[in-house]
Amino acid sequence: MNDYAQGMRLIIRDEEWMVRKVETNRLDQKALYCVGITPLVKDHETIFLSDLEEIEQVDPTKIRLVPDESPFFRKSRLYIEGQWRKKIPTDNAIHIGDKAAMDMLNYQLLPAQTALSKLRQRILIADSVGLGKTLEAGILMSELILRGKGKRILVVTVKSMMTQFQKEMWNRFTIPLVRLDSKKIQKVRSQLPSNYNPFFYYDKTIISVDTLKQDVAYRTTEEIRRYAFGILKGISFDDLDDGYDNGKDCQSLTHDDIPEINRYKSQAEEISHIIDEIRNLTQAGIENSNICIVARTNSLVKEYATALKNAEIEFYEIKRGKSDNRSHKGVRVATMHRVKGLEFGFVFVAAANNNAIPLESAIDHTDAVSESESLTAEKCLLYVALTRAKERAYITGYGKQSSLLVG
Predict the structure, then answer these.
(1) Model's pTM, two decimal places?
(2) Number of domains in the chain
């Protein structure tokens, strides 16, 4: 006599059934309480007597798994996954910040982890230029939004960095920031009651520090301070309050910061000396992957890459949206923007000429403030390039020397 148990699958009358309950009747035979599984008898409940039916047990090892493509299953799974995603983490781990569209470096997670470990998420990020403070801020913002603590976000930055910060937050972290200026604030105020806070009109905004300084009302009222989470990006103490004087701005470049400048009569002569120096470094045991040539524009990068190719020196161009593949052994060639956050033993800042650094097309001549901020941004790019070198940085150029360099 076969033994039947609850949960067993059986083939009875050419249909598949699942046993719900097993009872022994007065004739010492089994009464099987079953529910249908196959489409013809699905969910139909009935009782079979083991002595009257031809019963075949289903061998679990021979079962073929078939995905459930029914709309009910898909909707149920979508609902369950949606509920799971709504779950708010309570630990200090990084859950979504490291999944942004970026080449993440481990140290860029430390500010968010440090802030999340505190009762109140207040933190001052003071890394050097080019190490990824914008990305670090985006990682922390993403984690706070996930935890329900970043519903309202206000970013205060200098005018020249507003567009860049907006793009970075949206393209990398899908965090939308509404740009507020004096006209936008006045437009919002005209649509609201007189006692309503215009900064509550949008949840996530970005504003220039110059706009805040123009209107005393912005600085004396509680309109901005009542934001749950705020970011000050690229602002010195001098920008925040005229009464502060912190001496040198952290983004200024002094004579002591600049290594010796090598000037040549032509680009061909400059390229020849760079290639000679690279070969000397290689002969001294320096790996090519630890050498980088940095230029201001993509067109200049192409020229130096072509020169390396003609000299039969292996190279690797770091492009937009393409990370630095450390397994590649070639000399790195990149623009100043592309080397942010990266480090090399030896860096050649090439074509340090007045027509490239500062780049004329990058200067905003709208007004004196915009022009000054544009020049500061160009100076910061030069600072980024120079500080990528761990052992030695070279500055080379030809023609008229850059106005940002001294000596």
Answers:
(1) 0.50
(2) 3
